[in-house]
């Protein structure tokens, strides 16, 4: 029976891809394991293999086609001598059940088709500056490349950063430009290479240590906290540790409990540490450049789901964003929504929806978690008198909790309602798609919280 | 590849021997004084004395050159004195005073000197081993021939991150000497009870790192082994392991009653293997100096140590504002020292 071959999902976060090249043509006989096509995801070019044997009846998507959605039929395969045109009308039960499974895979953050996010003009960007649409992934790479060109003491090390071009392709191209002296593949030994990086920083180098994800940095947390963050103090100011620990943090999609956790609150707890969690590509670039130049250890928390999102980035030779400064994304009068990182997607979406209902929300992106720009938040609350915080981390001892306490201490008389913290649920991340969705916070939760604090 | 080394009999010059005597004695007198000040309540918290192990660091420091780095664990007072740090600054850190190397904020286990390339003083067992490999990484990155002496104990040798560091150091041929100061007790647990294979110096074999067992009560043997190791590292041949068999006379820390070993065991070591006595005997037997000459050295050291204790008592406690300083750097402090 003729069967449709569907565009495969080749990574947990892939929604669409480019059909780069067909390795077979109509009429070819293929058997299981033969390479059918090369498919380019946002991270890599992958070979796509045949699962069944048969004859390629019809190629439905021409090679070179970009933006082919996962589960789109790309070819028809059938038995020899079969009339393949029949397949176009018949929907084989087997493949449709498969497609359902993968179609529901994306996490809530991706559920909306990618929208070009508009970044309001910033004061530190000169008027008339050309803006270039850039993915967060490229912005991070550009930041590292620019800083490595600027300062020979900057190098990057981690698992798969060099020859593999980055497990999430963030370090793509760096090996070619900077050689294996400065782009260093490490063994899978987080504790060891984090410590080695800290030692190199003591000696005055400026390491960028990439963790494939921050979940694995728990293996190295002693070196990050006890060795990197505390040594300046313990040495009476003699021994600084200019190092950046960076990598994806928080929930990706369908990777379950051990690979889905936001560490913002963990690292923000530590004096001596700076903690950054950017949302936009411009901030990712500007903040990473500042982090690399900073004389202190910086934990730089990225997000896999945001890597592929595009934002306008100022086309400046040396665009930096200072650490410790929040950004007001949109101004409003009725409520202040404070978030950071991927939480901003919910905050901004909620603000858009609320605007339609006549609620004007001011949205603040903390950008740096430590030192935290509470001044900007408090000032905003003095205007709006209400606050909702949004983050994906667990609720107990969350960033939202700290903000709530700070707001209570510094702006108690200005509050017209208790602050509400929208957070991830107090459970390990489940695998099942529906439960995962439930475990994360959502635009709806943010909207409900805003309505609660504005008594609507 | 792993070997037990035997030092050639005394080929050291008079100057060298007198120098070792002086250095080792200074550490011992310093530690005795620290123990005394601890008993008086002037030093608090954890305080790990180096008495008995002096030959290890003195022998190895004799093989270093300007630019070489050293990093160790919390039993660190000896290392600081041996690399030329001021006993006053070290003692005042022990008493938690403004004149201490860390302005009183680090204490016994956390002291540093960028000037002397002393990178601590680390309180987490095993954590300084990857750090040492990182310092060596910087040497290689910067293209110099400096070597990093990374000291740790037989207890730390069982930590996983030590082997992560061994692997990377060997893989990248980092100029690091892993000095395992085997004093036979990880706090109260004898090596027999904690370590599956007693020959720790062979633990680098799986990584292709040469290792050697060294008599750590013999400063000349330590120096000879150190020279070999340093030459290996400086040449660019990668890391080297020295397992230096030593013995601490005092407890693990000041609060350790040391019930896990007999008084006789300690006494036997002190009487038969004391590293300072051994050098003293070489000096006297070789007629390099008279009893009176050595007495003069003893007196001179006693004065240095007494001065350091006086300084450590008189130096004021840090100003209360110091609580809030040195949490974040405005500029990289290393740049000033460079």
List keywords for this structure.
heterodimer; A: alpha/beta; OB fold (Dihydrolipoamide Acetyltransferase, E2P); Rossmann fold; 3 domains; 5-stranded mixed sheet; globular; B: 338 residues; alpha/beta; 7-stranded parallel sheet; two-stranded antiparallel ribbon
Structure, described:
The complex is a heterodimer of chains A (456) and B (338). In chain A, helix 4 runs parallel beside helix 10 (281-293), helix 12 packs across helix 16 (443-453) and helix 13 (374-384) crosses helix 14 (399-411). Chain A folds into 3 domains: 3-106, RNA polymerase II/Efflux pump adaptor protein, barrel-sandwich hybrid domain (OB fold (Dihydrolipoamide Acetyltransferase, E2P)); 131-314, 3-Layer(aba) Sandwich (Rossmann fold), CATH 3.40.50; 327-453, Rossmann fold. Chain A has a 7-stranded mixed beta sheet, with helices on both faces. Chain A has a 5-stranded mixed beta sheet with strand order 17-19-18-21-22, sandwiched between helices. Chain A has a 4-stranded antiparallel beta sheet with strand order 1-8-6-3. The longest helix of chain A is centred in the first third of the chain and has 15 residues, at 136-150. The N and C termini of chain A lie far apart (58 Å). Chain A is α/β, with parallel strands linked by helices. Chain A has 16 helices and 22 strands. The model of chain A is unreliable at 86-119 (pLDDT under 50). In chain A, strand 10 (154-158), helix 5 and strand 11 (183-185) form a beta-alpha-beta unit. Chain B has 338 residues and is an alpha/beta fold. Chain B has helices at 14-39, 54-61, 77-82, 87-94, 128-142, 160-171, 191-194, 219-234, 263-273, 275-285, 291-314, 333-337, and strands spanning 3-4, 69-72, 118-121, 148-153, 176-182, 185-186, 189-190, 211-215, 240-245. A 7-stranded parallel beta sheet of chain B has the order 1-8-9-5-4-2-3, with helices on both faces. In chain B, helix 1 (14-39) runs parallel beside helix 11 (291-314) and helix 2 (54-61) crosses helix 8 (219-234). Chain B starts with a strand and ends with a helix. The mean pLDDT of chain B is 94. At the A-B interface, helix 6, helix 7 and helix 8 of A face strand 3, helix 5, helix 6 and helix 12 of B.
């Amino acid at each position: 029976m003729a069967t449709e071959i569907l565009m495969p999902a080749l990574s947990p976060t892939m929604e669409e891809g480019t059909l780069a090249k067909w390795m077979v043509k109509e009429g070819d006989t293929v058997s299981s394991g033969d390479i059918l096509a090369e498919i380019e995801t946002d991270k890599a070019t992958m070979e796509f293999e045949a699962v069944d044997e048969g004859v390629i009846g019809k190629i439905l998507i021409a090679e070179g086609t970009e933006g082919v959605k996962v589960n789109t039929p790309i070819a028809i395969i059938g038995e020899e001598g079969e009339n393949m045109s029949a397949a176009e009308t018949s929907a084989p039960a087997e493949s449709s059940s498969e497609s359902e499974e993968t179609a529901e895979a994306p996490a809530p953050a991706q559920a909306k088709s990618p929208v070009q996010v508009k970044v309001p003009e910033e004061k530190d960007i000169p008027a008339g500056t050309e803006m270039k649409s850039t993915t967060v992934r490229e912005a991070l790479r550009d930041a590292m490349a620019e800083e490595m060109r600027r300062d020979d003491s900057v190098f990057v090390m981690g698992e798969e950063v060099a020859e593999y071009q980055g497990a999430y392709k963030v370090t793509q191209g760096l090996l070619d430009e900077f050689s294996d002296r400065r782009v260093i593949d490490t063994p899978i030994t987080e504790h060891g290479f984090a410590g080695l990086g800290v030692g190199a920083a003591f000696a005055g180098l400026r390491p960028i240590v990439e963790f494939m994800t921050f979940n694995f940095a728990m293996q190295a947390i002693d070196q990050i906290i006890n060795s990197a963050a505390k040594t300046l103090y313990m040495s009476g100011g003699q021994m600084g540790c200019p190092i950046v620990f960076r990598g994806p943090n928080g929930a990706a999609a369908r990777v379950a409990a051990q690979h889905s956790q936001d560490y913002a609150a963990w690292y923000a707890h530590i004096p001596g540490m700076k903690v950054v969690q950017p949302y936009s590509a411009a901030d990712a670039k500007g903040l990473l450049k500042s982090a690399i130049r900073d004389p202190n250890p910086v934990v730089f928390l990225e997000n896999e789901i945001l890597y592929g999102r595009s934002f306008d980035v100022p086309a400046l030779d040396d665009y930096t964003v200072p650490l410790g400064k929040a950004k007001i994304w949109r101004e409003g009068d009725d409520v202040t929504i404070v978030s950071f990182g991927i939480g901003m997607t919910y905050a901004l979406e909620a603000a858009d929806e609320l605007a339609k209902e006549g609620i004007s929300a001011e949205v603040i992106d903390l950008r740096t978690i430590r030192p935290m720009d509470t001044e900007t938040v408090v000032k905003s609350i003095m205007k709006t008198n209400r606050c909702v915080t949004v983050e994906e981390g667990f609720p107990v001892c969350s960033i939202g909790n700290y903000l709530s306490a700070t707001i209570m201490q510094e702006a108690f008389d200005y509050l017209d309602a208790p602050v509400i913290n929208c957070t991830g649920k107090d459970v390990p991340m489940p695998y099942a798609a529906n439960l995962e969705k439930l475990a994360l916070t959502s635009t709806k939760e943010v909207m409900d919280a805003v309505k609660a604090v504005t008594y609507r | 590849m792993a070997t037990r080394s035997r030092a050639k009999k005394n080929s050291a010059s008079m100057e060298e021997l007198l120098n070792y005597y002086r250095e080792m004695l200074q550490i011992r007198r310093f530690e005795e004084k620290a123990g005394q000040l601890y008993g008086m309540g002037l030093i608090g918290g954890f305080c790990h004395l180096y008495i008995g192990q002096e030959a290890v660091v003195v022998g190895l420091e004799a093989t270093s050159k300007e630019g070489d780095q050293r990093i160790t664990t919390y039993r660190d007072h000896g290392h600081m004195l041996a690399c030329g740090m001021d006993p006053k600054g070290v003692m005042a850190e022990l008493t938690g005073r403004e004149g201490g190397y860390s302005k009183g904020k680090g204490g016994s286990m956390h002291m540093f000197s960028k000037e002397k390339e002393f990178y601590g003083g680390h309180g987490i067992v095993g954590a300084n081993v990857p750090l040492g490999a990182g310092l060596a990484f910087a040497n290689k990155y910067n293209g110099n021939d400096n070597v990093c002496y990374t000291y740790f104990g037989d207890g730390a040798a069982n930590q996983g991150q030590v082997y992560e560091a061994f692997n990377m150091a060997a893989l990248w041929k980092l100029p690091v000497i892993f000095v395992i100061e085997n004093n036979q007790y990880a706090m109260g647990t004898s090596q027999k009870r904690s370590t599956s294979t007693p020959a720790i110096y062979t633990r680098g074999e799986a990584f292709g790192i040469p290792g050697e067992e060294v008599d750590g009560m013999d400063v000349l043997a330590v120096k000879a082994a150190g020279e070999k190791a340093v030459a290996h590292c400086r040449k660019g041949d990668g890391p080297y392991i020295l397992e230096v068999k030593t013995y601490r006379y005092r407890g693990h820390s000041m609060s350790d009653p040391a019930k896990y070993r007999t008084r006789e065991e300690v006494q036997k070591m002190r009487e038969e293997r004391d590293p300072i006595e051994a050098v003293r005997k070489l000096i006297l037997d070789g007629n390099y100096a008279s009893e009176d000459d050595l007495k003069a050295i003893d007196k001179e050291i006693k004065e240095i140590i007494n001065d350091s204790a006086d300084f450590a008592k008189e130096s004021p406690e840090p100003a209360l504002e110091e609580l809030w300083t040195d949490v974040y750097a405005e500029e990289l402090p290393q740049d000033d020292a460079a």
